[in-house]
Design brief:
The structure holds two protein chains of two kinds. Chain A is mainly β. Chain A is built from no helices and eleven strands. By secondary structure, chain B is mainly β. Chain B is built from no helices and eleven strands. Chain B is globular and about 40 Å long. The chains are: A mainly beta, B mainly beta.
């Protein structure tokens, strides 16, 4: 039972354009969401997070949007750069514990 | 400060054997989590230790176990290895909250 789903295994975007990565969840108890970026042969690195009391959080080129009614979040990267090519994971948690539930990841490829 | 280190980086074992993986967290971090990543899957949570106590546990069989020492270093053990245990095992140390979760490079375990 996948509680966090990233339905696109891969996404190809032109350099300079917007990249939009999507994530859906099923557990309404989740109230904290994180995005991680992972390069080959490295562990994931934290990118940006959002709590359920917000619907948007920005950090430079990265913005995460949360739609609680639809149980959907998305990560926008504007503008996309070659160094953004990586696998992006969405993860979710309830505030009361320290366990993350992860999506399967989306491989983002930025084309020059 | 030094990041999260995991040893060994690569390991090849045969079915039925047991294996021990090690993780040294970032200095000052008391929480260590372990994850399993298999191809096409997100990270699956194994367990989390905080101040030498297991605080959270995922849905893995009892063959998977862990412990944490007084210096916060952690080990995980897998007994009676199965082919399906072949995976990347990631360790993460955490500061004050989940957004401060830093991952090591992982141990690639291959079971033949």
């Amino acid at each position: 039972d996948q509680q966090v789903k990233q339905n696109s295994p891969s996404l190809s975007v032109q350099e300079g354009r917007i990249s939009i990565l999507n994530c859906d969840y099923t557990n309404s108890m989740f109230d904290y969401f994180l995005w991680y970026k992972k390069y080959p042969a490295e562990g994931p690195t934290f990118l940006i997070s959002i709590s359920s009391i917000k619907d948007k959080n920005e950090d430079g080129r990265f913005t995460v949007f949360l739609n609680k009614s639809a149980k959907h979040l998305s990560l926008h990267i504007v503008p996309s750069q070659p160094g953004d090519s990586a696998v992006y994971f969405c993860a979710a948690s309830g505030v009361s514990n320290y366990q993350l539930i992860w999506g399967a990841g989306t491989k983002l490829i930025i084309k020059p | 400060k030094a990041g999260v280190t995991q040893t060994p980086r690569y390991l090849i074992k045969t079915r039925g054997q047991q294996v021990t993986l090690s993780c040294s967290p970032i200095s000052g971090h008391r929480s260590v989590s372990w994850y399993q990543q298999t191809p096409g899957q997100g990270l699956q949570f194994l367990f989390e230790y905080f101040s030498e106590t297991q605080r959270n546990k995922g849905n893995f069989p009892g063959r998977f176990s862990g412990r944490q020492f007084s210096n916060s270093r952690s080990e995980m053990n897998v007994s009676t290895l199965e082919l399906g245990d072949s995976a990347l095992y990631l360790c993460a140390s955490m500061g004050d909250d989940l957004s401060e979760q830093y991952f090591g490079p992982g141990t690639r375990l291959t079971v033949t």
